[in-house]
Amino acid sequence: MDERLIEISALLLKEYLFQGLDVGQIQYIASQFRLVRYRPNQTVIYEDMPGLNFYIVYKGQVKISTIIKKPFQRNLKANLYDYGPGNFFGEEALLFNQNNKDIVKTTEETILLIMDKVNFDFLMERFPIINKKLKATAESRRLARTRRFPWFAEGEALHLMGRKHVYFLFRSLILPIFLFLLSIPVILYTFTQLGTSSRSILFQAGSLFMLVGSVAWGIWNWVDWGNDYYIITSQRVLWLEKVVGIYDNRNEAPLYTILTVDVVSSQFGRIFGYGNVSTRTYTGTINMNNVVRPNELAAVIEGLIKRLLQLTKAAELSQIKQDVKKALGRGDPTMPDLEELVVMEPAAPMAKKKRKLSMGEQMQRILKVRYEQDGVITYRKHWFLLFQKSWLPLLLMVILIFIISLLPSSSIISSQSSGLVVLISIAAFIGLISWITYSYVDWKNDIYMLTPEQIFQIYRKPLGSELKSSASIENILTIVHERENLTGIMLNFGTVTVSVGDTEIIFDGVFNPDQVHQDIANYQEALKHRKGEQKANDDRKRMVNWLMTYNKEVEKNEEGEISPESDQISG
Fold first, then answer.
1. pLDDT tens per residue across span 381-392
2. pLDDT in tens, 70-110
3. pLDDT tens-digit readout, 294-349
4. Is 60 in contact with 105 (CB distance < 8 Å)?
5. What one-character DSSP code corresponds to residue 69?
6. FRET pair for 373, CA 20 to 30 Å: which of 285, 339, 427, 564?
7. Do 368 and 378 contact (CB within 8 A), yes or no?
């Protein structure tokens, strides 16, 4: 068999897309591809290009980007993903018989596996299992194109993305729709049958409130359903939950940490095609509830875990071979000699310049209790604690406004004293605004931060003192969370206590303490994994040094520079 065909088959065998096929089927599919080499920065697919081919990255890397078109605004080019060996693209245009929506360009010298439309269509007909997987991925990428995920890593490919089953959207809209339909005859009755008395006006206002409230409730439920996603990539499993303006949560687990994948569905769920998928890790569980086709979702996760294990073993073996070849002078001639090939501490990464937030992003964070930027998660105390700080000035503000509204019709205040009353009212209004502002800033300044290597606890009084505590994630001994009272249980906030040696860092009053606990544990596991990778890299270098030392001593011995007797211990 052709050596190149063997290499292509070996690549396809590792990919989730082709799992479940035997070696003969893989070899047949591999024979349908042709190899095409591209120069760096060369366009492979441009926007609106007809769907002609299916592509798999064989060597090198490509960048996927799209054009965002907004009415009355200039079009923007947004980068989506960077795809490395094994990742595929071009399937959406072929499956849905449409032009390509994305732009694909190489970032370095790249070799692509290309299959034309005729062979692709035959492949889809002959192998329904591949057709099914490709359609699920294409639909997910179509959905993802409308969303921006800046946390996607280099070389990370999207495989599945979806929302909760649409049944739960319909179920959440039943009551708002009922109230909306009920409000219409109520409005007609109150405005046509009742008079203009104060009691009638009250009923009319109530009926209008029912109408507007039911519409707002329905829109809220629809937006809330649309903001929760499950995402499966080539590197991790994620469950995204978002409450507009308040909470933006990303619960994730790298594939290498997942121990088991469980599926639970009721009889009703099996009939309508939904269920719960749980991925268990050493540090916790990610629950993806009420998802569409849960068994298929679980199969995708298990297939990607298997693929990752195969790629990790292959990469480890390839790296060892490459290191030995380079050390022997059979690889890159610019590599250092044996004596220079020593284990070095990794250089500290250059700090990224912090991106300045736009006005819109700053407004979105006014009441957010969790947000993330550049891998740093920031938590604030629950907004109920803000309400505890500010309810009294808010109440006094309402009373003051009510009193001011009655002043023009009151005969108690004379014209001579009206100016003084206005000044007092303005002073009171400014004082209450200042009180409310101070309460908000005091709440906003108490933050807890989680970075890839450290945790921080910051208490800052407006115009006052600041207390900042920090600890390395590596030194964390225990993590405990609790909801301390009925209010905390009902509104889902509590305390997370992190023990580091003899000290404790306390995240007090944070929303969803379960998730905060999980975030810290995930970052701890990720740091452990990075340390493990660095140790493996150091061990490879040490092994190469030993092999090269042995090789040089053998060469010296063969050249007669060292006599056999010199290796013997005298005595």
1. 888 888 888 889
2. 665 566 666 777 888 888 999 999 998 889 888 999 999 99
3. 888 888 888 888 878 777 777 777 677 776 666 666 544 433 333 333 332 333 33
4. no
5. -
6. 285
7. no
Residues contacting residue 425 through CB under 8 Å, at least 6 positions apart:
400, 403, 404
Q: Which residues of 205-235 are buried (b: 16+ CB within 10 A; e: fewer)?
A: eebeebbeebeebbeebeeebebbbbbbbbb
SS3 560: coil
DSSP H helical segments within 145-235, as ranges?
166-192, 198-226
CB 298 within 8 A of CB 277: yes
Which tokens go with 143?
Answer: 């959905």
| Residue 272: pLDDT band with limits 50, 70, 90 | confident
The per-type count for the chain, helices as H runs and strands as E runs, is 14, 23
Q: What is the CA radius of gyration of the chain?
A: 32
pLDDT tens profile 16-66: 788 778 888 999 999 999 999 999 999 999 888 888 999 999 988 899 888
- Between CA 189 and CA 202 the distance in angstroms is 13
Q: Angle at CA 89, nearest 5°, toward 87 and 90?
A: 160
CA dist 74 and 305 (Å) reads 41
H or E element at residue 436: helix 415-445
